[in-house]
Amino acid sequence: MTIVERVPAASRPAKTSSRRAEPAGNRGQPAGPPSARADGRAGARADALAAPITRERAATRRPTARTGSLVTIDKEASEPVVTAKLADAARAYSADRYHDALRMLRKLSSMAPTSASVKELLGLTLYRLGKWPLALRELEAHHRLSGSYDQFPVIADCYRALRRYEEADATWTELRQASPSPEVIAEGRLVAAGSLADRGDLRGAVKLLEGTLRRSKPKGFHLRQWYALADLYERAGELPRARDLFAQIAAADPDAYDVKQRLIGLD
């Protein structure tokens, strides 16, 4: 699964590239830099169904963390000093310097305790560092302040990492009912499928993702879901279906994730 991350609008530094989309995780898309799985499988396996809390597993499992669509005006973040410091923290975050970003954001949090933008970026930074309870606190505060559902997939993945599956399910239900952007729904669906697979319900996870196949012109977030589904097929021993779906992904985007290696492995 992939978590495509966007720096909060209030903190987005000028003339910097947005964070690349990555196979997840979130999660991300799933999020995080692609890395090989600890079991030795080559390539960046965007395994949306691997446990998100284990460092030895692919960092790409996290959901796509999204930022920058605050519903309310963040008055504190509009203060020049806060804006400048938040931009510095965003640059550190975008460069994967999460400890530096955390240090800056903790100071900012005391300066701007009701800033939704600060809480959002602080929550994502804590999520990146695997501090799930603290990330939950900040991201849920961000939702209360902003009304935005953009980080609900990340919130669900934190619950999943803590094995609080009922709360992960409830978060997915609320996200689905709120029906924000298709990209956010897609990330939430990936986390929900991973949560089911964590509990041994591969059939349920497959069913949740199979509805995404009815696309003649898939977008990037469709391909992330297809990848997770193909991986599920392989795990369930349905190798022809896994091979066919990986081939569809490769036909849509030959450079997507590690589909070429996956296809070779299934030959």
Low-confidence stretches: 1-62, 67-72
What share of residues is helical?
A: 40-55%
Mind summarizing the main beta sheet?
A: none
Whole-number tally of structural domains: 1
Notable features of this structure?
54% helix; disordered N terminus; 267 residues; elongated; Serine Threonine Protein Phosphatase 5, Tetratricopeptide repeat; single chain; 11 helices; mainly alpha
Task: Describe the protein's architecture and organization.
This protein is mostly helical. The chain has a single domain (9-213), classed as Tetratricopeptide repeat domain (Serine Threonine Protein Phosphatase 5, Tetratricopeptide repeat). It contains eleven helices and no strands. α6 (165-178) packs antiparallel against α7 and α8 (202-210) packs antiparallel against α9. 50% of the residues are buried. The model is unreliable at 1-62 and 67-72 (pLDDT under 50).
Quick overview of this protein structure:
The chain is mainly alpha-helical and 267 residues long. It contains eleven helices and no strands.
